[in-house]
From TrEMBL:
This is Probable protein kinase UbiB. Keywords: ATP-binding, Cell inner membrane, Cell membrane, Kinase, Membrane, Nucleotide-binding, Transferase, Transmembrane, Transmembrane helix, Ubiquinone, Ubiquinone biosynthesis. It comes from Nitrogeniibacter mangrovi. InterPro entries: ABC1_dom, Kinase-like_dom_sf, UbiB, UbiB_bact, UbiB_kinase. GO terms for molecular function: ATP binding; protein kinase activity. Is probably a protein kinase regulator of UbiI activity which is involved in aerobic coenzyme Q (ubiquinone) biosynthesis. GO terms for biological process: regulation of ubiquinone biosynthetic process; ubiquinone biosynthetic process. Its EC number is 2.7.-.-. SUPFAM superfamilies: Protein kinase-like (PK-like).
Length: 510
């Protein structure tokens, strides 16, 4: 099967001219001319990026997912390819209903009509690794049932093995590809894809995000029905709303698109800076809008996380950008160790200013964050900045926010919308508010530790006394060893003197 799959990949690559894209890296052009002579009948009217996207679509859902992941690595890809791959969506053909039913019955151990009061045979959505059906529980609750594609683990294992072989060959045969880090990219893709194959992990992500936005006026997240969930099946509350891409329908229901776009920015910054846990797959297919104007989040297979250090670093950099304090941005990168400590701050500051200054005081419609991010990464590479893996998903999410913002309100000023939120967040991280918050967080630990304080002090003093006694005894032994060594030295010297006298005496007698 693997050989058959490999043959198909090679055939599709030749049909869409992907081989020419690889050979085009030869600066002399000799390989392209030789290869073109061998396949003289092939003509390609479409641009290379379009051909790459169509090839990935032809190879199936796993390669579509790989193309989606690649589109986030604008630090590694040319802009035309990154833009085209960003068009890939999880709109793949569904698998047959009888297979979906078979998965459910194998998991529940009984007929699907006994598990649910009703089950819609036609899927309502189909993605790379799963598809969704609507159902109703016996208590009347409407739910959405997400079912993993049958046999997807085996297909993924084969495709990942082939991708790894291809990445290894590319790395060895094409030295210029090493800047693209093909093996690292494949490994990163494999990690995220394996996470998506466990629907219990996705259910946990959904539950966490729902808890973070309990009673929120901005975002609603479906409830998970844990009794019906497993690794291959996830059952959650059915959500009613309009896809965020259907602008006319949103206007018809009275949704304020300008307010919706501002709410989207606040949701993003709340997830990133307040929670450090954010939805990292916010393309239009995963975002709906409820009748009351709140966002509805769907599909929680890909979530990003940030620790306190990352959040603080990002907040300081965002605020510095808003204040056009490029020296502070440059110094923050050096302090974080993301660029070498030998980097000249003034040179790095000047390079960042050249990228960022032109985009200020412009509406969103005149700004491409994708191009800005790309230029920032190109600038950072000149200063040997290391790519931070934990921020790759954040970069992807920022690009999705850009796309949503352009659709909803092209005049949105992202800077003015985000700056008050970031300033408020920074104020909560320093000063008396932060002191009170940290005291509240640490209070349970203090309450448990205070009653033990006398015993801990006694233990510390006792340990100190034992350590002091040990050090004293060690010093005494060391001094004794030194005295013994000195005596041995004197004894050896005396013996040598006696031997010398005896030899002198014998020499006198002779």
């Amino acid at each position: 099967m693997r050989l058959f799959r490999l043959a198909k990949i090679v055939a599709v690559s030749l049909r869409f001219g992907l081989d020419r894209m690889v050979l085009a890296a030869d600066p002399s052009g000799t390989l392209v001319r030789i290869w073109g002579a061998l396949f003289f009948w092939r003509r390609f009217a479409e641009p290379r990026a379009v051909r790459l996207r169509r090839a990935l679509e032809s190879l199936g859902p796993i390669f579509v997912k790989f193309g989606q992941m690649l589109s986030t690595r604008r630090d590694l890809l040319p802009p035309d390819i990154a833009d085209e791959l960003a068009l890939l969506q999880d709109r793949v053909p569904p698998f047959p209903t009888d297979k979906a039913v078979a998965v459910l019955e194998a998991f529940y151990g009984r007929p699907v009509d006994e598990v649910f009061a009703s089950f819609t045979r036609e899927p309502v959505a189909s993605a790379s690794v799963a598809q969704v059906h609507f159902a109703v529980l016996h208590d009347g609750t409407e739910v959405a049932v997400k079912i993993l594609r049958p046999g997807i683990e085996r297909v993924i294992a084969h495709d990942l093995a082939l991708l790894d072989v291809a990445a290894t060959a590319l790395d060895r045969l094409w030295p210029q590809s090493r800047r693209l880090k093909p093996r690292e990219v494949v490994a990163e893709f494999a990690k995220h894809l394996r996470d998506e194959l466990d629907l219990m992990r996705e259910a946990a992500n959904c539950s966490q995000l729902r808890r973070n936005f309990t009673d929120s006026h901005l975002l609603v997240v479906p409830e998970v029905h844990w009794d019906y969930c497993g690794k291959s099946v996830m059952v959650m509350q059915r959500m009613h709303g309009i896809p965020i891409s259907r602008l006319e329908a949103l206007r018809a229901q009275g949704t304020d698109l300008s307010a919706l776009s501002m709410a989207g920015v606040e949701i993003f910054f709340t997830q990133v800076f307040r929670d450090g846990f954010f939805h990292a797959d916010m393309h239009p297919g995963n975002i709906f809008v409820a009748a009351d104007g709140r966002y509805i989040a769907l599909d929680f297979g890909i979530m990003g996380t940030l620790n306190d250090t990352d959040k603080n670093y990002l907040a300081q950099n965002f605020l510095a950008f808003f204040q056009r304090d490029y020296k502070r941005v440059a110094q923050a990168h050096i302090d974080a160790g993301w660029v070498p400590s030998t980097t000249r701050v003034d040179e790095f500051e000047s390079a960042i200013r050249a990228v960022c200054e032109p985009i200020f005081d412009k509406p969103l419609k005149d700004i491409s964050f994708g191009k800005t991010l790309l230029r920032l990464f190109q600038t950072a590479r000149r200063f040997e900045m290391e790519v931070q893996p934990q921020l790759v998903l954040l970069q992807k999410t920022l690009l999705n926010i850009e796309g949503l913002g352009r659709q909803l309100d092209p005049e949105l000023d992202l800077w003015k919308t985000a700056k008050p939120f970031l300033e408020r967040w920074m104020n909560e991280q320093v000063g008396w508010r932060a002191l009170l918050r940290h005291a509240k967080e640490e209070a349970p630990g203090w309450a448990a530790t205070l009653p033990q304080l006398p015993r801990l002090v006694h233990h510390a003093l006792d340990s100190h006394d034992r350590d002091l006694a040990t050090r004293t005894e060690l010093a005494r032994v060391t001094q004794a060893q030194r005295r013994l060594q000195r005596r041995l030295n004197w004894l050896v010297a005396l013996l040598l003197a006696l031997v010398a006298l005896e030899l002198w005496h014998l020499a006198g007698l002779s």
